[in-house]
Amino acid sequence: MSWSQPSEGQPASSGRRTAAESGHPAWCDRSRCTADPASQVDGYRPGVGGAHRSAPIRLDLTTVTALAPQIGEAYLTRAVAPWPCETYLHIQHGDSDIAMAVRDASPLLSALRLLTTEAEAESGWSW
Ligand SMILES: [Zn+2]
Q: What is the pLDDT of residues 88-109, one digit of tens each?
């Protein structure tokens, strides 16, 4: 499995304002964002706050044995409520959508990276 950035041709910073200025996390893709902080001003109203959402990244799974479909997506979301909310990493593959808090995903991804780095070093292959 490899991770790749989405569509080329879009500048990485394309005039983005900082999160503090815009109210959106830096990773939020405004075209996918449904966040409506104004809906929460008078207190929590479940189901109407929307969520910030990142652009998906394409997961090329063509090298994974016996797995179909061979393309997946990963993206971030963060719900909107009057209190701070967790940011979640979603990994979609076929009908499956795995979601985990970024704070839980980060150590897992670091452990996987360490594991594969050790295997690459042992193989003597350089990429
Ligand atoms: Zn947003």
A: 999 998 888 999 999 999 998 9
